[in-house]
Specification:
Blueprint (H helix, E strand, L loop, with lengths): L38 H21 L28 E2 L19 E8 L2 H31 L2 E2 L2 E2 L7 H15 L1 E7 L7 E8 H28 L3 H28 L12 H14 L2 E7 L3 H14 L3 E3 L7 E11 L8 E13 L4 E14 L2 H30 L3
Helix pairs in contact: 1-4, 2-3, 2-5, 4-5, 5-6, 7-8
Amino acid sequence: MGFGAKGITLHGWLWITAAVIVSVGFAGCATRTPQEVPQEKIRYRADQAFKDLSTAERGSADTSPSETMNSDGFNTAHRTAVEIKVAVKTGRRPDWVDGPSSRYPYNRYITGVGYGPDRQSAEDKARAEIAKIFYSDIRSSNRTYQSILENNTNGKSTSAENINFTEITRVSTRVIFSGSKIAQVYRDRSAQPEFFALAVLDRNLSRVMLKSKISELDENIQQHLSAAGQQRDKLSQVRLLQAGIRDHALRQAYNTELRIVDPVAKGIPPPINITDIKTRLDNILLKDFFIGLSVDGPGADEVGQAIVEALNQRGFAVCEEIDKASILARGMIEINALPRNATGWIFVRWRAFFDLIDRDGGAVFSSVQKSGKTGHLTLNHAENRAVGYMRKVLAAEISENLSKYIRTRKM
């Protein structure tokens, strides 16, 4: 059987975190105008924060067990190891409860106020208030990227499925939670709720951290693109370019945060445009990277066409010339009639077996096996129902397994 070559962009998932240490005042200290912090001290404290982050990342590659999500969808329990809880103040109501803080002015700090029936909920809400300042802009940035990565090429739709934009937003707001500190907690026993918390984020310290992260991602992107140009294996090229796009999307999220932290600046323009990387990936997927498809058995044409359509939706080009393919999907279908029962219906049992093979070495990296039973008043209708079901389940699982393999394949 033959299938036309089609291709569209694939993208992926990634995940990076960072933490910064912010200087805070302890409750009970006399109110004063903060002095400018020397740049050397800012950089030193930022370096210490990066060390803390590296230690945390080596200990866990995923979300810390101590993290939770509040009703707004933000992580609220992340704390740095060096954070010390401030004493709860009582008595005279602080200025920050009802307005700006004189101790943490806007030009040097981003602040958030939270309140609740207990101290923990007040602190979590204060941190969430800071994160919300960044949240809408990061989501807007993600939508811009999504519009670039989702397009329509020659009537074939594509998706940015390999970039988890929700995760990028979560990671970005987690950075803000990591960098923010609870500066003061106030308790008013006559009020409901009675706990109030002030979270602060040091603009200077955050600026140093974000610029460093952006610079690091720029280096990673350049390395991905350079390595892709040196690879002969098309699958390796695709994976490296996808990694470059994922890093570029995260870079944009950090750059969005930088523009908020430093409203005078306009961020750092990327040295490489996202559309340039996308075009390069599109060209490989459309012209050089092919999936070979071979299906035998009853209903092979119908099932094969459904698989082609599902692969096209994920950005793969499909061809029948196995020698040109980087990956081969090879399958066999069986449909057997069962004895007629007392109801008069005719049932068939169907089975499908597919192997997904990386032709670079010939390894089978995934197998799909499905079976079932369908029935109808006639044999032809029963077989058609079996083929229809196979079209749906096989196309979805085979395309998903292929996409996952390309995203996670080790170099």
